[in-house]
Design a protein that fits this description.
single chain; mainly alpha; 3 domains; 15 helices; elongated
């Protein structure tokens, strides 16, 4: 009888070729009934069927399964004895790719933090320090800290950030607990150069500054930012290395703080201009009014304040300015008569002018 001369199987779990059909030598009719040969054939058939199924799932992207806390009753049962919303203590959180979480960014064991992360409304709460909203659009947790949530100061600062976002800018008992724990851990580290200048400590202070900014505590924000500046000076003088991720986070927080201060000045200026809108003094100083409106509106964040500046500009173009200063070169010539910097003012002012000209 004709014999197939392809290599035979050496073991139950090894195949002659990876991902291809396996050929089994049959030298006589009795070999087909051999139990070992039949078992190998069945095993190979099942393996091929599973491979085809996985391939179809990958092509249709059906191989990702959504899981919730309800899918793990055993782990929940172990935690029923512990009180809800307790303060977080150090635990070896991991950021491994194999752990599933809604955004594939933070892998946590805390049900409370997991619940916060699953709410779409609070996904941007930790920005600009790190992001869980879109890993490709902004640096994620691991890119900044290159570690897991095993640092108590950082972990409590993260919890504080998301719980304050839940309360929409107010602090409750739970948030106060996380805040006091984070501050306590940070204070303990100030006596050690190594721990004070660690990435986790700097990141925790950045998150605290973001929370204080959301709460409107300007003096506390300035205090935290001053502490960051001092730590950065120490790192430079001592030659302490900081990762690019934490450097970007610090830069973004400082820039956001500057924008916030500029926006506050724009708001105060808007109120003064609205109060003096009918003052006839502007009839003789229309060029100064034009400069005030454009500078104030250019540095106002998108929203009600910027919209009010645009409304004032439209009203003055129709009344006091009477169609003047419509072209960009003419407007630029007027603005340059007052305090002006092409590097600082040109881009935002021109963007506002284009918005008004539409």
């Amino acid at each position: 009888m004709l014999s197939i001369t392809h290599p035979s199987v050496k073991g139950d779990n090894d195949s002659a070729t990876d991902g291809k059909f396996q050929f089994i030598s049959v030298c006589n009719p009795g070999d087909a009934k051999d139990e070992q040969v039949r078992r190998r054939a069945r095993s190979h058939a099942v393996k091929r069927a599973l491979e085809r199924k996985r391939k179809l799932q990958q092509e249709s992207r059906d191989n990702f399964c959504v899981s919730t806390l309800k899918d793990y009753p055993g782990s929940l049962a172990k935690r029923k004895s512990s009180p809800a919303h307790t303060l977080v203590t150090p635990s070896p959180f991991s950021l491994s790719v194999g752990v599933l979480d809604p955004f594939r960014t933070l892998a946590v064991d805390s049900p409370r933090l997991q619940a916060l992360l699953t709410d779409y409304k609070f996904r941007q709460a930790a920005e600009p320090v790190f992001s869980v909203a879109d890993e490709l659009a902004f640096q994620n947790f691991h890119a900044v800290f290159q570690t897991g949530l095993d640092d108590p100061a950082l972990l409590n600062a993260v919890m504080l950030t998301f719980t304050v976002a839940v309360t929409q800018g107010s602090i409750d008992r739970e948030s106060l607990g996380y805040q006091s724990q984070a501050i306590s851990y940070i204070r303990q580290r100030m006596s050690s150069l190594v721990s004070a200048t660690s990435i986790s400590t700097i990141g925790a202070i950045l998150l605290l500054a973001g929370v204080e900014a959301r709460l409107g505590a300007k003096s506390q924000v300035q205090l935290h930012m001053k502490a960051i500046s001092q730590l950065l000076d120490i790192c430079r003088s001592e030659g302490i290395y900081l990762t690019d991720g934490i450097k970007r986070a610090v830069f973004c927080v400082f820039e956001t703080s500057r924008i916030s201060r500029a926006s506050q000045v724009s708001l105060q200026l808007l109120r003064k201009l609205q109060q003096a809108d009918d003052d006839p003094i502007w009839d003789d100083h229309a060029d100064l009014l034009l400069w005030l409106l454009y500078i104030g509106g250019a540095f106002a964040l998108t929203g009600a304040v910027r919209s009010n500046y645009i409304s004032l500009l439209h009203w003055n173009y129709a009344s006091r300015f009477q169609g003047l200063y419509n072209s960009w070169p003419e407007l630029l010539g007027i603005l340059r008569q007052f305090i002006w910097s092409d590097d600082a003012f040109m881009s935002p002012v021109k963007a506002l002018w284009e918005e008004i000209s539409i």
